[in-house]
Write a structure and sequence with these properties.
Blueprint: E1 6-9, H1 13-25, E2 30-36, H2 39-56, E3 60-66, H3 74-82, E4 86-89, H4 105-113, H5 119-136, E5 141-144, H6 148-157, H7 169-177, E6 187-190, E7 212-215, E8 218-219, H8 223-226, H9 238-254, E9 258-263, E10 271-277, E11 280-283, H10 291-304, E12 306-309, E13 314-318, H11 319-326, H12 330-333, E14 336-337, H13 341-356
Parallel strand pairs: 1-2, 1-4, 2-3, 4-5
Antiparallel strand pairs: 6-7, 7-8, 9-10, 10-11, 12-13, 13-14
Helix pairs in contact: 1-2, 1-9, 3-5, 5-6, 5-13
Length: about 350
């Protein structure tokens, strides 16, 4: 079938937003393949995306490919068939909408501990697709959309390719850059996923860790006061997060340079300003803080309460996340070598099913 510029795995709402934004803004001929296991959903996404390309008059074309990532080498087969320049992995066995769910014990546990408790689910399919990428198209840029602040570190520890994630830090950077406090000026943001939560609260109730923000290379002293007007919904902010990755995907697909913000670049923890030059993505911190300090600042969040990779390549849980997991499975709370990801996924799946069957 020939090469594609972009291959997207996933048929959920996040993958759809990315697809629909890609076809609306592409300015160069761009061939996009959307792959997943739901044939009816795939057919509709491709039809709707091609219609949108026609509506907006853009040179984008979309094909649908059925691929069940749980079936053997299905991912590698699709990747080898199309040799995409960019692979976007947005399929997850744990939807991010769980952060707004209520009614069962699993959802209440996530509400207390945060998304780091779902790291195994977020990394599971992404590891399969990253492995397929390494096998079938090692030159492709691999973008993981599933909790990249932490899951990308798991992929890196497994020795798998990962260029970056999308969303998270770029949600805040995009909203800050269009706030009256910074409109028309250069904004750079360091933001771990955990720094997003306060922006879901109303300004008078806003508590928790703040991101670090620079406007024209000067660090903002009181981020909450400066950007008081910024307010997120309590649900996943896919209206912004998916769109924020689109310019980068198109730049990668067509060999252009790019600057912006991404989570998990090259498997690093948290989110950073970043730049793509000559096909290579690297973090681009503001003056006054070097790369090592920026990485350490982001890494500290998961070490206090979250999931992180230790010096022995074990995934370890810390703080509230460990305590919450220990309350339902002391064995899983001890962590595991990343090489055991697939086996641990089975154990976590059994635990989740049991807790989902229990009232909150």
């Amino acid at each position: 079938m020939g090469e594609a510029e972009i291959l997207i795995f996933g048929t959920g709402s996040f993958a759809a937003r990315i697809l629909f934004d890609l076809v609306a803004v592409a300015t160069e001929p761009t061939r996009i393949v959307i792959a997943g296991r739901n044939a009816d959903r795939l057919a509709w996404l491709a039809a709707a995306a091609n219609a949108r390309a026609g509506i907006f008059g853009t040179p984008a074309t979309v094909l649908a490919e059925r691929a069940d990532l749980l079936e053997g080498d299905a991912g590698a087969t699709v990747i080898a068939r199309h040799r995409p320049k960019v692979i976007v992995q947005a399929a997850s066995p744990q939807a991010s909408s769980v952060i707004a769910a209520t009614g069962n014990r699993w959802a209440s546990l996530i509400a207390q501990a945060g998304l780091s408790l779902t790291t195994v689910f977020q990394a599971f399919l992404s590891a399969k697709v990253a492995s397929a990428t390494a096998e079938a198209s090692p030159g492709s840029h691999f973008i993981n959309c599933c909790y990249p602040d932490v899951a990308n570190g798991v992929l890196k520890a497994l020795g798998l390719p990962v260029t970056s994630g999308v969303g998270n830090v770029s949600i805040l950077s995009s909203l800050f850059a269009t706030s009256p406090a910074a409109t028309g000026r250069e904004v750079k943001v360091l933001a771990h996923y955990q720094t997003i939560t306060p922006w879901r609260q109303s300004p008078p109730e806003r508590r928790g860790p703040a991101p670090r923000v620079w406007i024209d290379d000067v660090e903002v002293e009181d981020v909450f006061a400066t950007f008081r007007d910024v307010q997120l919904t309590r649900e996943p902010v896919i209206d912004v997060s998916g769109a924020a990755g689109v310019p980068m995907m198109l730049a990668m697909a067509h060999g252009h340079d790019w600057r912006g913000h991404v989570p998990g670049p090259n498997g690093l923890p948290g989110g950073y300003p970043a730049a793509m030059r000559g096909g290579v993505l690297a973090i681009d911190p503001p003056s006054g803080i070097d790369a090592e300090a920026a990485i350490s600042w982001n890494a500290a969040f998961e070490h206090r309460s979250g999931a992180f990779i230790d010096e022995r390549n074990w995934l370890r849980y810390a703080g509230t996340v460990r305590d919450c997991l220990a309350s339902v499975s002391p064995t899983l709370a001890e962590g595991f070598p990343v090489s055991a990801l697939y086996e641990v996924h089975k154990e976590m799946t059994a635990l989740r099913r049991r807790l989902e069957a229990q009232a909150a």
